[in-house]
C-alpha cells in the first residue's frame, strides 16, 4: 500500500517520468506530375489510424463528397493531417492513401498509392520518437521513395495507370 501511495505521488510530482510525446503528421506538398483524366482529376487523401487495443479511426481530406481538382492540388501545402499523443512504449501507425474520386455508381474511386508512417515512443532504448516510413502497396509501378531522417521528411512519387503524383510528408514533435 505504501508503494502504491509513493508511486502515485511520484507520478504527480514528476509527470515527465512517464514520458509521452506530442506528434503531428503534415503534408508539405502534393503535386500532380501527370493526371489520368482528360479534364481534371479529383483527388483526396484517405487516412486510417491504428493503435494497439483501439478501434481504427478512418477519415479523409478534404471531407466527404469534396475533392481537390488537379489544378488546385499543387496549392496543398503545410497541411496538418494528424495530431496526437504517443504514450511511453506505445506505437501508432497512420496509413495514407492518395485516391482519385470518380462518380458513383458508374465508377469506383481509384487508388493511386498508399504510404504509411509508424510512430513509436521509446520502443527501443532510444528516448526519442522512432519514425518508420513504408509503402505497403503500390498500384502499377513501384513508388519511388526518398527520406531525410534528419528532419523526418519523406518524399513519395506514385506512378501508375491512375496518374503520377508526388507527396511530401513530415513528422514533427512538440
Structure characterization notes:
The structure is a single chain. This protein is mostly beta strands and 174 residues long. The chain has a single domain, classed as Immunoglobulin-like (Sandwich). Helices cover 7% and strands 53% of the residues. It contains 1 helix and 11 strands, in the order αβββββββββββ. It has one helix at 2-13; strands spanning 21-34, 42-51, 57-61, 68-69, 77-86, 91-100, 110-121, 129-134, 144-148, 153-160, 163-173. Strands 2, 3, 4, 6, 7 and 8 form a 6-stranded antiparallel beta sheet that branches. It has a 5-stranded antiparallel beta sheet with strand order 5-1-11-10-9, with no helix packed on it.
Describe what is shown at a glance.
This protein is mainly beta and 174 residues long. The protein is built from 1 helix and 11 strands. It has one helix at 2-13, and strands at 21-34, 42-51, 57-61, 68-69, 77-86, 91-100, 110-121, 129-134, 144-148, 153-160, 163-173.
Structural descriptors:
single chain, 174 residues, mainly beta, Immunoglobulin-like, 6-stranded antiparallel β-sheet, 5-stranded antiparallel β-sheet, elongated
Mind summarizing the main beta sheet?
A: 6 strands, antiparallel
- Shape category: elongated
CATH class: Mainly Beta
Q: What is the name of the CATH topology?
A: Immunoglobulin-like
Helix content: under 10%
What's the layout of helices and strands?
Layout: H1 2-13, E1 21-34, E2 42-51, E3 57-61, E4 68-69, E5 77-86, E6 91-100, E7 110-121, E8 129-134, E9 144-148, E10 153-160, E11 163-173
Antiparallel strand pairs: 1-5, 1-11, 2-3, 2-4, 2-6, 6-7, 7-8, 9-10, 10-11
Amino acid at each position: 500500500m505504501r508503494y502504491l501511495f509513493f508511486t502515485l505521488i511520484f507520478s504527480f510530482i514528476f509527470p515527465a517520468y512517464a514520458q509521452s510525446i506530442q506528434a503531428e503528421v503534415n503534408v508539405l506538398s502534393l503535386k500532380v506530375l501527370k493526371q489520368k483524366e482528360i479534364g481534371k482529376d479529383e483527388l483526396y487523401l484517405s487516412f486510417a489510424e491504428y493503435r494497439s487495443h483501439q478501434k481504427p479511426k478512418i477519415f479523409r481530406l478534404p471531407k466527404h463528397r469534396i475533392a481537390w481538382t488537379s489544378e488546385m492540388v499543387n496549392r496543398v501545402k503545410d497541411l496538418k493531417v494528424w495530431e496526437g499523443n504517443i504514450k511511453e512504449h506505445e506505437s501508432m501507425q497512420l496509413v495514407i492513401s492518395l485516391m482519385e474520386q470518380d462518380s458513383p455508381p458508374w465508377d469506383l474511386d481509384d487508388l493511386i498509392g498508399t504510404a504509411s508512417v509508424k510512430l513509436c515512443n521509446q520502443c527501443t532504448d532510444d528516448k526519442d520518437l522512432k519514425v518508420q516510413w513504408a509503402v505497403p502497396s503500390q498500384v502499377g509501378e513501384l513508388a519511388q521513395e526518398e527520406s531525410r531522417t534528419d528532419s523526418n521528411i519523406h518524399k513519395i512519387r506514385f506512378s501508375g495507370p491512375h496518374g503520377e503524383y508526388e507527396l511530401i510528408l513530415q513528422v514533427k514533435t512538440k
